[in-house]
Amino acid sequence: MEATPVVALALIQGLTEFLPVSSSGHLVLLPHLVSWEDQGIAFDVAAHVGSLLAVVLYFRRDLVVMSNDWLMSLRRRSVVGRSRLAWAVVVATLPACVFGLVLTQLGVDLIRNPLLIASTTLVFAILLWVADRFGAQSRTESDLGWPGIVFIGLAQALALVPGTSRSGVTISAAMALGLTRSAAARFSFLLSIPIILAAGSVQILELRHSHVDPNWFSLGLGTLVAAVSAYYCIHVFLRLVERVGMLPFVLYRLVLGGVILMVFV
C-alpha cells in the first residue's frame, strides 16, 4: 500500500474504533469511492495494534490500579478497591469471545456486505438515540450490577455483525441501564482492550499462515497513525460527550447508512 491510503485508512480506523459510529461502514465505503484495493490482513493487524496502544496508554493509571486490586482480590477472595470493575470487564468480554469462537467453529463468515452494513448502521443509530434520549444518566460504571454487566457483554457480542459498531452498541446498552454518557464511554473503552487484543491475536495467527511478505514501513506508519488518532479521539470524546450528547453521532450514522445504500444498492 502507498502512504496515502495507509494514512487515510489508519486514521479512519483510529477514529471510528472508539466513536459510536460504524468503522466497517467507513472501511467498506472509502476504498470503493477512491478505487483502492483491499487493505489486507496485515494492515488490519497494524491498525488494531495502534488502537490497542492508544487505549492502554490513555487508561494506563486506571489499568495499573485495576490490575493490582484484581490480583489482591484473588489472594484475599474479596472485593479490593477497583477489583470489581476489573472483574466486570472480564465478565462482559466473555459473550463476544464465546460467540466469536462459535462462529469460527461453524465456519460462519460475517462478511462486509454493504447492504448489511448500511442496515445495521441505521438501526443501531436509532437505538443509540433512544438510549441517549431516555436513559436516566445518573449512574457510573462502578454502580453496574452483574445482570447489567452481562447485558452489556451480550450487546458487545452483537458487534460481531458488521456495521453495528462495538463502541456504539456498548455505549447504548450502558446508557439504557442508566449510566451517564461519560461513564458509558469509559466502560466501553475499557471493554475494548481485551476485545482488540483477542481480535488482533486471531489476525496475527491468520497472517502467519498467509505467507504474506509485509511492507514494514506501511505497517509501522499505519500503527502510528491509528494510535495517535485513537488516543486523541478518546481524549476529545470523553471531554465533550456530556455537553454534545449522542445526537451528532446518530445523525452522522444516518447519513453514512444512507450514503452506503445509494452507492451500493
Topology, pairings included?
Elements: H1 3-16, H2 23-34, H3 40-58, H4 60-76, H5 83-106, H6 114-134, H7 146-157, H8 166-176, H9 181-208, H10 216-244, H11 247-264
Helix pairs in contact: 1-2, 1-3, 1-10, 2-6, 3-9, 3-10, 4-5, 5-7, 5-9, 6-8, 6-11, 7-8, 8-9, 9-10
SS strand fraction:
under 5%
State the order of secondary-structure elements, H for helix, E for strand. HHHHHHHHHHH
Distance between the termini: 28 Å
SSE class? mainly alpha
Give the uncertain stretches in residue-range form.
none
Q: Using only CA atoms, what is the Rg? A: 18 Å
| Number of spatially distinct domains | 1
**Secondary structure tally: strands:** 0
Look at the structure and give the mean pLDDT. 88
Quick one: overall form? globular
**Tally of separate helices:** 11
Question: Describe the biggest sheet?
Answer: none
Helix content: over 70%
Q: How would you describe this protein?
A:
The protein is an all-alpha fold and 265 residues long. The protein has one domain (3-264). 77% of the residues lie in helices and 0% in strands. It has eleven helices and no strands. It has helices spanning 3-16, 23-34, 40-58, 60-76, 83-106, 114-134, 146-157, 166-176, 181-208, 216-244, 247-264. Helix 5 (83-106) runs parallel beside helix 7 (146-157) and helix 8 (166-176) packs antiparallel against helix 9 (181-208). It is globular.
